[in-house]
Amino acid sequence: MKEKLILRPTQIISVFEALSTIPKNLDVIKAKEIWEKSDRGKGNTVAIIDTGVEKEHPNLVSNIIGGYNFTDDDGGNPEIFRDYRGHGTHVAGIVAACECENNEGIVGVAPKSKLLILKAIDRNGVGSYENLVNALRYAINWTGPNGEKVDVINMSLGGSAHNEDLYKAIKQAREKGIVLVSAAGNHGDGNHQSFERSYPGYYKEVIQIGSVTQNLKPSVFSNTNVNLDFVAPGENVISTHLNNKFVELTGTSMAAPYVSGGVALVLNLIDRSQPAMIPYLIYQYLVDRVKKLDYPISQVGNGLIQLT
């Protein structure tokens, strides 16, 4: 359990005090086209395993249903899942930034879904497989105030080595019908023949997401490997951040939550009578609608996520 987790963003590009926009990337993945029939993800909960969240952010506060701190930050108090880095806050906003009454800020992919914040990375950007495993187990067993359960888990993080405890937790979550989504990682070199592996994304039970540019070209930094499933926008992504601000970040960390939010929408369109089948049905839905890209599978997997 000594293996460290690694965050997946690159540098902050721009900081915005205020915005009033629906991100263009929602059109890139065709999210808005299923908003009405999916009720914008209402009734579904996405667990964000990350650096915590700025829970007072006006574009997030109404969608945060709970949280837990697995790090030593704030004296290890499990009830304080404050984000000191902004990474988890940014990821959460991509998934489910809410539609504010004053129309300020941004809107997430599934703006009526709920967010369970599981802090596994500390203020120094350091985590462990133990933190990640504990967060996964918490998500598997969590019940919300009105009987809610976790439907999707987003992991914009990873480590370089396989871990048996981690893999066991991943399989347990999937068996419960939870859809697992993870960033591919940012150690790519632009060569589709050189493979870079990051766990848990590399596990076949997890939907592993790479990044593409705004021109739908594979991002140079995005990990390439034979288990890559899909790609999504991952460069110059605007989302929520610390101090009630909005920033642009780049990385596969930003691509993964587009898919997690998309899954929160699609869950309202499929038959969920058999929980164990849900991950299969979601994957098939995504494969059937994907936009094929003219690049090697190791760079783009099945292609660009399309929700309709």
From TrEMBL:
GO molecular function: metal ion binding; serine-type endopeptidase activity
Cofactor entry: Ca(2+)
Pfam family, one: Peptidase_S8
Domain Peptidase S8/S53 as annotated: residue spans: 41-284
Gene3D superfamilies according to UniProt: Peptidase S8/S53 domain (3.40.50.200)
Subcellular location: Secreted
UniProt key word Plastid: no
UniProt keyword terms in alphabetical order: Calcium, Hydrolase, Metal-binding, Protease, Secreted, Serine protease
Active site: D50 (charge relay system), H87 (charge relay system), S253 (charge relay system)
Principal subcellular localization: secreted
PANTHER family documented for this protein: CEREVISIN-RELATED (PTHR43806:SF11), PEPTIDASE S8 (PTHR43806)
Protein name: Peptidase S8
Organism: Siminovitchia terrae
Taxonomic lineage: Bacteria, Bacillati, Bacillota, Bacilli, Bacillales
